[in-house]
Design a protein that fits this description.
The protein is an all-alpha fold. It has nine helices and no strands. It is 74% helix and 0% strand.
Amino acid sequence: MQSDTLEVRLPGSAVLLFTWAAGAVDALTYLSAHVFTANMTGNTVLLGLSIGRGSSGEATRALVALAGYIVGLALGALLPCETGSARSRRAFLLTAAMLEAALLAAFAALWPVSASRPEGHAVGAVLIAVSGVAMGLQSVLVRRFKLPGIVTTYITGTITSLVTALTDRLRGRHEPAATDELEARMKLQAQVFVIYAVAALVSGALYSRWHAAVGALPILAVLLAAGMALRRNQGLAIRD
């Protein structure tokens, strides 16, 4: 059969919803356990600090987060995704998003329980682990769609790409024919930065006011993101 030449894409709305989920998870795990499970740069710093201070409990939580994230990366990398096949890429998108949603559902279910447990309780460790796996999986999901200069689980690279592109544009270092594409990319990069921060802000504000339910926000964002992405690419898979 003739291969489909249309490309399965990840729409900007889905990218921002995935970003919201990551920002919310990072905020909630930091507030509850003082670790990051999406941002491994920050988590590595916390790991070094905890070891330097001789805090075994904090070091263990940081290691669990790091291990969970690595497992999520490996899981995402093992999922089949043929670059030239719309059917394969759409199946990858659906499988990865549903796996992430299932992990975040476990996170949401454990979240109210963890609030009443001591910081070092096993429930807290499981909460960190499942959210770490979910964020590692999301990193691979977004990476597979090759969005230039955009990562949803940490924003250092996104900010770097945005500021570099903006500076190059102001100095006239870009092809005129690529102006529209460059502007669209820079707009999405700026939106990712803002959404990540807003997700943390909202999660922090709801942490004490709506604690039992705030853990469900990330899974809602991922489900909406998957729905939007699949709707955007509806029909491509059957044309392979």
